[in-house]
Design brief:
Distance between the termini: 45 Å
Helix content: over 70%
Shape: globular
């Protein structure tokens, strides 16, 4: 089995303002819709960390049926909190047929994966391989491979279903903000969506630490330009006291978001500059790409800054509703 290492596209948390609706049932359903989606989106984002751990494991132990003996296998963490969030999402009495179907299939697989990875973590942490010459490691590896086949399929299906639902939520929220003349929220949502599109284009081009200099700038630069234009519009709106008051914001609430936005813009500008100059990563960075998260303009740094931006977006939008 060959596992692809994909870029994470973090899903937005959607927090919709309910306002004063005549139909209280509709109001309640909106909250259930948002609540269920947010649980599922959070689970999917957690799964990116699980996937990173799986990739690290395969680098050390291999993907073949016979395990490669290694004393440097790192832990794969499947948090109980991730399983609990998935259970809560499933339990909300609001139908999301495709998502619910995959979520219900994913739940027992995640539980099974947690059991075997906990055993693997204990085995390697305790250095039990020194006394059994990796005999139990092989046993656990065989179980792990069987579970991963199921997990990988559901991971892809869950992500695809979430992207479809996210698009529906995005369009609904955008129309609402436009109708209400909520220009700050409108531009915030457009900005975060274009930022996601930039990460999505990196994924489409399969750009990573080893090959990013081959990036197609004819696809990346237009998205960057839209990010710049929208963020400039947003900066003006944040200074408009009347608009802030209308949307129940305070200027100081945007300070952390503005810092994250500046860091993200700087990272993608540096990323594009590296491609233009054909400035490659050094051999050490290619060998250990996870070490480049703090290096401005490297693919992993762009991803990290995007994640920070999404977190701060969700924090602001949560407070405003």
């Amino acid at each position: 089995m060959k596992r692809k290492i994909l870029f994470l596209i973090m899903l937005l948390t959607f927090v919709m303002s309910c306002g004063s609706k005549k139909n209280s049932d509709s109001n309640g359903n909106d909250l259930k819709d948002v609540g269920k989606f947010n649980y599922y989106a959070s689970v999917y984002n957690d799964m990116s960390e699980i996937n990173a751990g799986i990739s690290e494991y395969f680098r050390e132990a291999g993907e073949a049926e016979k395990i490669k003996k290694s004393e440097t296998v790192k832990n794969i963490t499947v948090n109980e909190g991730t399983i609990e969030k998935l259970q809560k999402g499933i339990s909300i009495n609001y139908k999301m047929e495709n998502l619910d179907k995959v979520a219900k299939e994913l739940l027992p697989v995640l539980k099974e994966l947690k059991i075997v990875t906990d055993d693997m973590n204990n085995y390697y942490s305790g250095k039990d391989y020194t006394s059994d010459n990796f005999a139990k490691a092989q046993e656990l590896h065989t179980k792990f491979l069987a579970i991963i086949k199921k997990y990988e399929k559901l991971d892809n299906e869950f992500g695809a279903a979430l992207v479809v639902r996210e698009k529906e939520n995005f369009e609904s929220s955008l129309n609402k903000y436009k109708k209400d003349n909520s220009l700050i929220k409108y531009n915030m949502l457009v900005l975060i969506n274009e930022s996601k599109n930039f990460i999505g284009e990196m994924k489409t081009q399969n750009l990573n630490t080893a090959n990013y200099t081959q990036g197609d700038l004819t696809k990346l630069k237009p998205i960057q330009q839209r990010i710049v234009e929208t963020s400039n519009n947003l900066q003006k709106l944040i200074k408009d006291e009347k608009q802030l008051k209308k949307e129940k914001f305070r200027a100081q609430e945007f300070k952390t978001f503005q810092r994250s936005l500046a860091s993200y813009r700087a990272s993608i500008a540096s990323f594009i500059s590296r491609i233009e100059r054909k400035y490659p990563a050094n051999p050490g960075e290619i060998k250990q790409p996870w070490m480049t998260e703090s290096t401005e303009g490297m693919p992993n740094n762009v991803l990290r800054e995007y994640g920070n931006l999404v977190d701060d977006y969700n924090s602001i939008m949560g407070k405003s509703n």
